[in-house]
Amino acid sequence: MHDDSPRAADLLAQRLYEAGCRHAFGMPGGEVLTLVDALEQAGITFHLTKHENAAGFMAEAVHHRDRAPAILVATLGPGAMNGINVVANALQDRVPMIVLTGCVDADEALTYTHQVMDHAQVYRSITKGTFTLTAQGADIIADKAVSLANQPRPGPVHIDIPISIADTRVSGVKRRRLAKPAAVAPEGNCVEKARRWVAEAERPIAIIGLDVLYDNSRNVVQAFLEHFNIPFVTTYKAKGVLPEDHPLCLGGAGLSPLADKHLVPLVEQADLVLCLGYDPIEMRPGWREIWDPAEKRVIEISAVVNDHYMHQAGLNLVAHIGATLEAIAKGNPARTTWSEGQPQQVKAALAEAFPTDDDWGPAAVIAEARATLPAHTLATADSGAHRILLSQMWDCHEERGLIQSSALCTMGCAVPMAIGLKLVEPDRPVISFSGDAGFLMVAGELSTAAEMGGNPIFLVFVDASLALIELKQRQRQMGNTGVDFDRHDFAAMGRAFGGNGHTVRNREELRAALNEAMKAETFTVIAAEIDRGGYDGRI
Questions:
Q1: How much is the average pLDDT of 9-19?
Q2: Residue limits of the Thiamine pyrophosphate enzyme N-terminal TPP-binding domain (predicted)?
Q3: How far apart are CA 210 and CA 229, in angstroms?
């Protein structure tokens, strides 16, 4: 008699579908075939990639559009190990991700050693939690994983799935769901103190971080800053949480010493600093302890307790950002701030520091791309010198309009992220910005782009060097070692994988290539050849 009871893998897949997941990415092996089948049966499409690391970045990109946890699937042993980088990235970059790995059954692992290793032990330090699926507990484990991945601050959760457990039929399951907590704001003396500090501030400034992206406080944050006339800086992850053409916006901060030269002194002049969901894991050392809370009023509103010691605050509120700001603003009148116009002066200085009118070079490439592509273009950035420049120059009109690895800063993320974005936003222009070294790490995923369809644009800065490392090497007066390589025909790579390819050496050629790429039926690789040293004095 046929048993119609769900398999344990089905219960897991159904909970992921319930969480909003519609896409999973990875490389299958015999140990995860039941899992892949269960995902498909539940309505979650499994996408084959060429490497688990790239699969994770595609999954992350999908998360940035549908807000559901990313799903990475890997088979045992080498498959699970290939995903280490992207899972560590998800932990540092606060990406909710469910990492599903296949494994042999516990009894078999007692006497069988081929490709057998302790996945949980490896993943424990780079995830928020790790579980081994059981048949009767499959639904509970799935719910725990989804809940833990989404809890502040979000991150990856690993589930190891034994082969026979995935296939086990389960009956009589009582499904349980962890209740979602309501938004909570502080009360009493803390709020009164915050209200008084805001009312008395003559030179306030806000630093906005990625917590705002996850608690839906965007509109309240904007209303609060506008009401009290508070200029603001965002981390790179929070770029676009308020449109960057807003008069109070001073742009992104994180890795650029050139931008810091203008932004840090303004923070030092402030008499009140508001840290709104500010997670300093994205920031360079120049932002470490740049104020003394004994001398400067600092209000921190965050999703979790500040235990990083990158900075400290005189008033720490672990609460919902929007609800807390509403409580602080209630009955508090608007007032004039920065009477000498310092924020406007800094904004003008930043515009001069990052000009858009270069004839050619990395800044010209970015400026021309931003001017040519529509405002609603979605962009991804790989790590390298170009990312620092791009993060300052690429204006975002919406949150997550530019995504990148800004905490772990791992190379090879931009191309797969762009593929993931195009998958879920087929009608919007999508462009990735990669250095030539980062692009070479994931060039094989051009075949995935061709297989998935759509016309993402992959722009490569070609200078045949690890430009950021080479720059640091010269700054330390060291010899040129291990940072240069040959120039390659990246446009030909695009054509070889069934896409389009262009090599450009000036603005006019770039503009024409971008316009052609937006009309193309398949992907386009644009190789922008620039001189070495083009980033000197620019980042």
A1: 98
A2: 7-121
A3: 21
Q: Are residues 34 and 86 in the same domain?
A: yes
Check: pTM over 0.90? Answer yes or no. Answer: yes
pLDDT tens-place string over residues 288-301: 999 999 999 999 99
CATH number at residue 505: 3.40.50.970
Residues 232 and 220 grouped into a single domain: yes
Intra-chain end-to-end CA distance of the chain, in Å: 69
Residues 222 and 104 in one domain: no
Span 33-71, pLDDT tens digits: 999 999 999 999 999 999 999 999 999 999 999 999 999
Q: Is residue 536 part of a domain?
A: no
- Give the rounded percent of residues in the chain with a pLDDT score beyond 90: 87
Q: Residue 44 is part of which domain span?
A: 8-167
Residue 183 or residue 512, greater confidence: 512
Do 360 and 508 lie in a common domain? yes
For 67-89, the pLDDT digits (tens) are: 999 999 999 999 999 999 999 99
Domains identified in the chain, total number: 3
Residue partners of 516: CB distance under 8 A and separation at least 6: 500, 502, 524
- Element (DSSP H or E) covering residue 122: helix 119-123
Looking at the domain assignment, is residue 161 inside a domain? Answer: yes
Question: How many CB atoms sit inside 10 A of residue 326's CB?
Answer: 16
pLDDT at 1: 56
Same domain, residue pair 321 and 412: no
> pLDDT at position 300, please?
97
Local structure of 54: helix, strand or coil: helix
Name the nearest CA neighbour of 55 among 30, 31, 77, 75. Answer: 75
The answer for residues whose C-beta is within 8 angstroms of residue 314's C-beta and 6 or more apart is: 293, 294, 296, 297, 298, 299
Coil, helix or strand for 158? strand
116, 238: one domain:
no
Q: Where are the alpha helices (DSSP H) in 270-409?
A: 321-329, 342-353, 362-372, 385-393
Amino acid at 80: A
